[in-house]
Design a protein that fits this description.
The protein is mainly α. It has one domain (about 10-80). It has 3 helices and no strands. The protein has helices spanning about 10-25, 30-60, 65-80. Helix 1 packs across helix 2. The longest helix has 30 residues, at about 30-60. It is rod-shaped and about 65 Å long. The two termini are about 50 Å apart.
């Protein structure tokens, strides 16, 4: 994947810690930052997805949904399947 250069401003202590980790892992500072950013973005996307799922389940079922559930329950009862 092509790489792009960028300039960012971060706290000096965070940069020092990043450099320490990079040295311990024997990898470039940019790799530490890239991997941290990937982790952050994955966590962000997961939270967004969870919020969408929670919003979908927060909606009360409408009449059509209720009727469908009653039909399913009646078929389950006829077949001896319990919830």
């Amino acid at each position: 994947m092509p790489k792009s250069k960028t300039a960012i401003s971060i706290e000096s202590s965070l940069l020092l810690e990043t450099d320490t980790v990079a040295k311990e892992l024997d990898i470039p500072r940019s790799q530490v930052i890239s991997e941290a950013l990937v982790g952050y973005l994955n966590q962000y996307r997961s939270k967004q997805l969870l919020a969408k799922i929670n919003a979908a389940y927060a909606v009360e079922p409408d009449t059509e949904d209720e009727e469908a559930m009653q039909l399913i329950r009646s078929h389950q009862k006829k077949q001896g399947i319990s919830e």
